[in-house]
Amino acid sequence: MQGQRYAPMPPKTPWREREDPKTGKLYYYNKDTMMVQWKKPKGIDIVRSRSQSRSPPRQARRRSPHPKSRRSSAHRRQKSAHHLQRAFSEDAMMRATDHRRSSSRGRLRRHASDMMLMHHREIKQEQYHVAQPAGSILHSTHSRESPESTTEPDETDGHSLLGGRSQARGTLAIATIDEEMRRLRRERDYLRKELKLQTQAHAIEMRTAQEEAIQLSVRIERELQRQHEIELKSTISELESEIDQQEERHARRYAKMEYEKKKELQRLEDSLREKYEEQLAEIEIRLSHHSFSQTMHTEKKSGMHVEKKSVIQKVVDLQESNDTLTRSQKDMQEENKQLKRKIKLLEKFLTESVEKHQKALENNAKEFYKQEETYQNIIEQMSTKMRQFQKKATKRSHRVSGEKPTVGGI
Q1: Are 237 and 355 within 8 A, CB to CB?
Q2: Which CDD domains does this UniProt record tie to the protein (predicted)?
Q3: Which of these, 237, 6, 29, 47, lies nearest to 129 by C-alpha position?
Q4: Residue 17: beta bridge partners?
Q5: Which of 167, 166, 164 is CA-nearest to residue 155?
Q6: What is the tens place of the pLDDT at every residue in 358-410?
Q7: In angstroms, rounded to a whole number, what is the distance separating the alpha carbons of residues 226 and 364?
């Protein structure tokens, strides 16, 4: 295992590349922290689909044991050419890059990174191939121990004893680190589940609050409509009773006027009869003084009497017709007045009912808008609390995973 080395496997990343169905743009989604951003994260190989994200088989993962710079002479020549191009370039940035790479600190940094990659590669291969020993203190499925290392030291050699103890201490430290990492991962998973449940509960509360607001507004509108109908019916009944009372009063007044007119007519008839009876008596006295023939006297007397009766009858008929005309005229005037009063009352009632209905609708709208404002305030408070909790959860998850929070997260 020590002599054979492999290239480092691509690190497993939670980032995934996706496509926005509306705009067609690519965005990046972290399935662990549930963060979304447009900018591609640096230093991470991202695949777009699950089939591409699967790791290739073990034989395909094996690479050349030597670094890239030692693969071929052509590569070395190309590397030296690039180095000369940077060293003698007119661009100050390229010269600074070459100076940084060729300096002792840059060489040391590259050597350290190469060593870390080699160590990571060896640990990965041991985890993949080596089974867990029987007396190991680790509880994980992949052990970090080599198959040669055991918990019991060899008593024959002092150097091997010290090496075994240091290796046991190293495995113990690795085990404690693994336990801590597993605990932190469990805590992160628990926080994710809790955040998901709280978002679902928040959505349910929002939906129930909206439904309750709609039901309350409908209930208030129905109650106002019912009250308005009751008030309308009561006002209509009051107006009808008042109109009936006025009609009764007008009927009594009309009957009284009719009775007075009849009495006046009777008095006029009596006065006319008395007047013409006196005239007839005078005529009879005058006719009695004449000594003409008795026949002529009687004829004249009878003719005058008939004529007087006809005149009296004509006068009475004219008086009655005049009375009927005046009576009908007064009746028409009274009916006209009553109709005008009814029209005024109906117009007044219509305006009052329209004003009442308008006021009721305005009050209903004001109450509904107040309730909607309160619900909106409640929703905003809950959303701010949710955002604060989400920020805390993302910070804790980044603290657990050891990653820095990404800039540009949605």
Answers
A1: no
A2: WW (cd00201)
A3: 6
A4: 28
A5: 164
A6: 888 888 888 888 888 888 889 888 888 888 888 888 888 877 776 555 544 44
A7: 13
